[in-house]
Amino acid sequence: MTLIVDYKMGNLGSIKNMLRKIGEDVEITSDPIRVARAERLILPGVGRFDRAMENLRQLELRPALEAAVFGRLVPTLGICLGMQLMTRRSEEGDVEGLSWMPGDVKRFRFPSDEKLTVPHMGWNDLKVKNDSPLFRGLEGDSRFYFVHSYYVSIDDPAQISAETEYGHSFVSAFRRGNLQGVQFHPEKSHRFGQALLRNFIGGAPR
Question: What CATH number is attached to the domain comprising 95?
Fold first, then answer.
């Protein structure tokens, strides 16, 4: 069973539908007791960094998440904003993040003559690094769907699972033990997203 953490942000239904499509039992919950006892966790997210952290506080989810993530080493996947919340802080706001990953979140900034739009939106490919199990078996033409104005910068290059080019190279996936994060949306990435979520589920105890 995979639990999708409902902290009142993100397209939870799309993730649930994708997981069901690949045969996974899934539940959406904001119950701290259920979260603390989860077998696998997905921390989704679409929205503002500060508001998300405030919602986690109000719902009393952070202690439950950390009991699962660090107390029981539950496999946990952060998607888009969910990935960014795992870092120390974001240029989007003033509230500290979860600080599970040694890194920060920065805004895309490009010279006007580059003609690159923010947010970065659409399909893009990845350069997989450090033999990440999340991407095993994915063919070389794999592409994933992105919608974001901010990106994660990680302190330790060994924790970078994939990078993507948009004006410059940025971290599109990271891994630290049982923690993994992806900047793109696997639930919107068709067969590539399905394959990635199967890897996440298959690499975790059932």
Answer: 3.40.50.880
